[in-house]
Amino acid sequence: MGPGRSALRARRAEVLRRAGSGRRIVVTLEPENLFYITGFWGEAGGVLREDGTVTIVAPELEAGRAEAESVDSAVEVAPRGRGLVGGLVESAGGRAAGREMCADCRDYSAMSRLRRAAPGALAARAPFDGAREVKDRWEISVLGDASAAVDELFGLCASEIRAGMKESELQALLVARAAALGLFDTGYRSTLNPLIVAGGPNGALPHAQVSGRRFAAGDLVVVDITLRHRGYVTDATRTFGLGRVPARARDAHGAVLEAQEAGLRAAVRGAACGDVDAACRNVLEGRGYGEYFTHSTGHGIGLDVHEQPAVSRGSGSVLAPGTAMTVEPGAYVPGKFGVRIEDSLVVAGGGRRPRVLHRFPKGLMEL
Q1: Which residues contact 337 (CB under 8 A, 6 or more apart)?
Q2: CB-count exposure of residue 71 (10 Å: 0-12, 13-18, 19+)
Q3: What is the CATH number of the domain that holds 195?
Q4: Distance CA 31, CA 283 (A)
Q5: Residues 319 and 218 in one domain
Q6: 90-93, long-range: CB within 8 Å, 24+ apart, which pairs?
Q7: How far apart are CA 25 and CA 100, in angstroms?
Q8: How far, in Å, are 5, 140, 307, 323 from residue 133 at the CA level?
């Protein structure tokens, strides 16, 4: 079951509010944004009007499903591919509607066709990006269910990781179990693998590709699970030890855990994202691992793997209650090992600590 009518009405109103600049019509060609305002995810586009009504414009092969899965949305049929842009413009009011229209399309050629068909149309993802940053109760519930399932996958890691197992073999076990739990690949284009499973020196690569390397005694094994459930992405990482790990690796794990806890404490309503990043970075610098923390502290999560806000050095974005994000400091010693500890969380109201969506232990498990 997807979001209800009241949630969708609120989302549509927020997208329109953020459109601004006299734009009374919002057009989307992105499946994430279409789902956000209709409850339907597919090869189609949507037209959101000032009165809150939505029309889904879909090729014939998607129209039946769009009618069945969408909420409070009309469905019109248009030719697949190039014809879809024309159908969207026609549904929005034709050529004359261009100066009242903004569109979220990432595809340059499609956006160019839309602008030719409706001169004055504005390319703008901000209305959706801004609206999607704060999650409603239904979205938070879905993220909570997804995160609980990821915790179960970490339990599978704890029971299955052993010397001689290939990284790819562990990934296969996790992907099969994830599918049984209703979690699936996010389709993230910057990786060839649905997960990150990196043992020993491979763990020193923050975005390591899963390989045929076999785990060995003394390895740290980084397992980063980023999967989609009912449209929404959850993201968490644990680092396991295989047998007795070297003293420096053990110390690095302790430093990253301390940094992550500092970041969680800082992730409160009204905090600047740069301050959350600094809280993690300061701990790692104080423990001698600052140079090995080579990425930002976190990012928003939701219908995309990476959403607003960016939890990075110097970011002035301010956290609001309901913001869903990650806190994921790491330390990566080239050629030796890597450590990352990550939770998905939801920012709470008042000055309370965030709601951390994962319960699987974060201390070093020596399996």
Answers
A1: 200, 201, 203, 204, 219, 220, 245, 246, 249, 252
A2: middle
A3: 3.90.230.10
A4: 40
A5: yes
A6: 91/47, 91/55, 91/57, 92/25, 92/27, 92/47, 92/49, 92/118, 93/25
A7: 6
A8: 20, 12, 7, 6
CA-CA distance, 294 to 285, in Å (whole number)? 12
pLDDT tens sequence across 70-106: 999 999 999 998 899 999 999 999 999 999 999 998 8
DSSP state of 1: -
Q: Quick one: tokens of 239?
A: 């680092």
Q: Answer with the one of 132, 153, 180 that is the final residue of a domain.
A: 132
Q: Are residues 341 and 219 in the same domain?
A: yes
Q: For the segment 43-66, what is each residue's pLDDT rounded down to a tens digit? A: 999 999 999 999 999 999 999 999
Structural domain count, the chain = 2
Do 13 and 120 lie in a common domain? Answer: yes
Same-domain check for residues 144 and 107: no
Decide if 326 is inside a domain: yes
Q: What distance in Å separates the CA atoms of residue 289 and residue 296, rounded to the nearest whole number?
A: 14
Task: Report the SS3 class of residue 94.
Answer: coil
Domain-located, residue 195: yes
Instruction: Give the chain's mean pLDDT.
Output: 96
167 contact partners, CB below 8 Å, separation of at least 6:
197, 198, 199, 202, 210, 211, 212, 213, 215
- Residue range of the domain that includes 76: 5-132
